[in-house]
Amino acid sequence: MNRHLFSEVLKQISSKLDQLKAFLSSTAHLKVENVRLTDRFNSRQHIIGTLYLTSTHLIFIDPEGKRETWILHSLISSVDKLPTTQHGCPLRVRTKHFLSAEFTIPKERDCADLYATLNQLKPDSYEKLYCFLYQAPNYLEKIWDPFLLTTEYMRMGVPNVDWKIEDGNSNFDMCDTYPPLIYVPTLTTKAMLFGSSKFRSRGRLPVLTYLHPNGASITRCSQPLSGFSARCQEDEQLLQCILKTNPHSNTMYIIDTRPRINAVANRAAGKGYENEGYYSNIQFKFCPIENIHIMRNSLQKLLETCEMKNPTMNQYLNALDNSSWLQHIKSVLDAAIFIARAIEIEKKNVLVHCSDGWDRTAQCCSLSSLLLCPYYRSIHGFRMLIEKEWLSFGHKFSDRCGHTTTSDSKEQSPIFLQFIESVWQLSQIYPTAFEFNERFLISLHDHSHSCQYGDFVGNCEKDRLDLCVKERTYSFWNYILQNVNDFKNPLFCPQSSYASEVLLPVINPQTLKFWLSMYHRFDSALLPKENISNTLTRLVDHTLSLSDHARLLEKRIRELHSIFDNDRTKIPTTTSSSTTTTTTTSNEDVDDSDIEKGNHHKKISLSELDSGLSEAELCQTRIIDSISLKSNTILQPLPTLSSSDVESGFSGDYSPHGKTPLSSFTLPHQSSIDTNDIPTIERIALELNSIALDWRSYHTPVHCACSLPFDSAQRKYNCWKCGENFCARCIERGIHLPGLYSNSSAPVCKTCARSIKSSPSFADFSALVKSKSTEFIRNQTAMKLSRSMIDQFNDDR
Questions:
Q1: By mean pLDDT, which of 192-206, 300-314, 618-632, 736-750 is the weakest?
Q2: Is 354 annotated as a binding residue?
Q3: For residues 211-248, b (16+ Cβ closer than 10 Å) or e, as one string?
Q4: Any idea which positions bind substrate (predicted)?
Q5: Is 355 annotated as ligand-binding?
Q6: Taking the CA of residue 607 as centre, how many other CA atoms within 13 Å lie in the half-sphere pointing to its CB?
Q7: 541: annotated binding-site residue?
Q8: What is the tens place of the pLDDT at every residue in 539-588?
Q9: In this predicted model, which residue has the larger pLDDT, 797 or 77?
Q10: Residue 21 pLDDT more than 80?
Q11: Which of 117, 150, 204, 302 could lock onto 323 through a cystine, CB 3.0 to 4.6 A?
Q12: Alpha helices by DSSP H, 758-796
């Protein structure tokens, strides 16, 4: 790093620290100095800094600014006071994204104040959640990409002759935790639907959630209110209608995802499961997945295992086994694989339910759909899967994640985390089949708890409509879209068989892995020194950068060749006299053909004879002067036309000198937009200097330029202009580099971004990019309009 860049970075750091201190001084509820942050695996390692408590965050900053720890209040799961030590009063803060931070505060009174304030700052209602206060960066707009449930069902070919759309729940009268529009068999009647709704727990009647290309379907519902002998004819008729939608089989499965003993126990409370004697042509099967309380306790044991200090191998493995966490993950995957096999191989319809149909049912339906449909393994498709199975059909995110203090702690459970981990386990078995990477799954889990975005607030679609989250908050999916390259899997291969076919894995105990990057992501000592996914992503980005830059260079070379060839045909050659001392007034008298043939020594001016240079040196000098003069002449910008010129019929191709300018040539690889892209020497220099050919390796630097320590869990970025490594806070993403053929935005460090923006040629380049985008949009709109007119004309005929 050169001295100028280093000084710029120092100025940036000091400016940021001053702004941060001013912000904290004005917004902090509490400020405690000389706080010791201790490494939980090495008590001898610690950092002393200042602790700030604001209305939204708990922030720890060391004096040198090398480390900043920001903890969002909504992510805090517990705050515990530990026994006093010689250094002060320890306070342990645990978060829902598995950070465990131990702060030692010198004064006991400050520790008590901090403990009390942290407990008071937890939101006690939806209106106080962070998403309604959050101010996003400038690149993130408060725009929600409208998810229409009908669009996803249309992609599956619904409605059709067997399935129809039903609007009987448009006012949430039938079921307040279902979406307004539901899909049911064509043969059903409203009386049948309302009757079944009254017979099912929480009114969650059987509805379509996935339709396979072979005609087999997955439907979901809740347990029946059957008790020991109750029955409902409307519910029985509805299941028969579902059975008739599949021409390939005369039987269907009912999958109860509870252990049998739990389902039998629910019969005593007037609930239970379907009586096989009342439902004809039904195959009933239990796929035992434990309830929310056992899952919550299992996660707690897993986290206790993760916090063990210096355990032996036997202690660690026994504790991991006693948590039963991986056994529960295997149970969820086994149930989903059974459903996928029934759909793909046996071609039978499957009805899935648990108790209320919003926890284990959501896990099994979404995972089986992921196995069956390659579309759901893309980033966009996975978003649709979450929207459909978890959000639209009412998974209780606020209760399960404990978003507010009013949430019952007994209702909290890691149901969504188990789904996320199950997807991660599948991605380890099929590394080329998923477009998204591990970071995408971790981010999805974290933001389901953080309440930074409005997508996961509330317990159902009706709650989110009542809160007007789309009008008042930012969308998590918009954040993903703006940073999509950070979440792409570099190993994803759309052409591979795994990426385009049904996945039916065989899950053995040896198949499953402990997810180190999820549960130990903040423990850098336990993580691998180099992350393979990050390294591959860096190679992909570097290759993309060089390929894009090479395309632009090839374009410029073709343009220059075309210009020189055309200019050679336009400039008349000067006939040389037999005299060796012909006086020339400019380098335009030199014939290019003579230069190429080596005959230029016949034309030597008196000034060149007096220069004292040798003939070879004069030859080289005159070649350079000739090319430079022609380049300056050809690459100079055209005069700007006034509005009157345009109205008079003169376009940008008009040349007052009678010569055909650059824009009049349309090369085979150029579009109509490219023909107006007239490069100047300054522009070409800007293009050449805006792309770094060599990138610094990820494992070389230990710290970012802002002094933030690097570890394998962090996303590191190479600046596409200088090639150095930076952390996320030192990178700007919306910079259009002139050296890229695609004119796409690229990650650039803030120092390089200021340097590019201050260049006089960058303003012209930015205007050109904007004009290209505007013209592209205009052309696309015109094409769509013309297509619609043609379609309308054909329909009229």
A1: 618-632
A2: yes
A3: bbeebbbbbbbbbbbbeeeeebebbbbbbbbbbbbbee
A4: 291-292, 354-360
A5: yes
A6: 6
A7: no
A8: 888 999 999 999 999 988 888 888 887 777 765 554 444 444 444 344 43
A9: 77
A10: no
A11: 302
A12: 760-796
Which neighbouring-strand residues pair with 68?
A: 61
DSSP, collapsed to helix, strand or coil, labels residue 698 as coil
Residue 649 corresponds to which tokens in the numbers above?
Answer: 């019929």
The stretch 448-474 carries a mean pLDDT of 94
pLDDT band at 783, cuts 50/70/90?
Answer: low
Q: Report d(CA 134, CA 731) in Å as an integer.
A: 21
**681-761: CATH homologous superfamily?**
Zinc/RING finger domain, C3HC4 (zinc finger) (3.30.40.10)
What percent of the chain stands above pLDDT 70? Answer: 76
Per-residue burial over 654-665, b if 16 or more Cβ lie within 10 Å, else e, is: beeeeeebbbeb
14: Cα separation from own chain's centroid = 31
**Taking residues 426-431, what's their average pLDDT?**
95
CB 618 within 8 A of CB 580: no
At 667, list the tokens: 């090369």
CA 403 vs CA 432, 445, 459, 725: distances in Å: 35, 14, 10, 36
The response to whether 281 counts as a known ligand-binding position is no
Do residues 622 and 601 lie in contact, with contact meaning Cβ atoms separated by under 8 Å? no
Average the pLDDT over 140-160 and give the result: 88
Span 628-674, pLDDT tens digits: 444 444 344 434 433 333 333 333 333 333 333 333 333 444 443 34
Of 61, 54, 63, 64, the closest CA to residue 23 belongs to 54
Phi, psi of 654 (to 5 degrees): -75, 130
HEC string of 678-691 equals: CCCHHHHHHHHHCC
Note whether 54 and 27 are within 8 A (CB): yes
**Integer Cα distance of 702 and 61 in angstroms:** 19
- Residue 183 pLDDT > 80: yes
Question: What is the distance between the terminal CA atoms of the chain, rounded to a whole angstrom?
Answer: 70
Beta bridge partners of 200: 224
Cα dihedral sign for 458, 459, 465, 471? positive
By C-alpha distance, which of 392, 387, 547, 390 is closest to 480? 387
Average pLDDT of the residues in 503-521: 94
Give pLDDT, residue 561.
84
Q: Where are the domains of the chain?
A: 21-122, 149-308+320-527, 681-761
Nearest to 139 by CA among 724, 718, 740, 728: 728
Is the model more confident about 440 or about 496? 440
SS3 content of the chain, % helix, strand, coil (to 5): 45, 15, 40
Question: May I ask the CATH architecture of the domain 21-122?
Answer: Roll (2.30)
CA–CA distance, 369 with 209 (Å, rounded to integer): 9
- What are 314's two structure tokens? 């036997």
pTM: 0.78
Residue 80 annotated as lining a ligand binding site: no
Tell me if residue 354 is catalytic. Answer: yes
- Taking the C-alpha atoms of residue 220 and residue 203, their distance in angstroms, rounded to an integer, is 12
At residue 279, the 3 state secondary structure works out as coil
Backbone angles phi and psi of 422, in degrees to 5: -60, -40
Mean pLDDT check: name the lowest of 111-120, 185-194, 557-566, 786-795: 786-795
357 carries a ligand binding annotation: yes
Question: What is the phi/psi pair of residue 507, to 5°?
Answer: -95, 115
Tokens at 696, concatenated: 């610094």
Of 405, 662, 325, 378, residue with least CA distance to 500: 378
Query: How would you class 701 by CB atoms within 10 Å of its CB: exposed for 0-12, middle for 13-18, buried for 19 or more?
Result: middle
Catalytic residue among 89, 175, 354, 719: 354
Nearest residue to 96 via CA among 79, 121, 116: 79
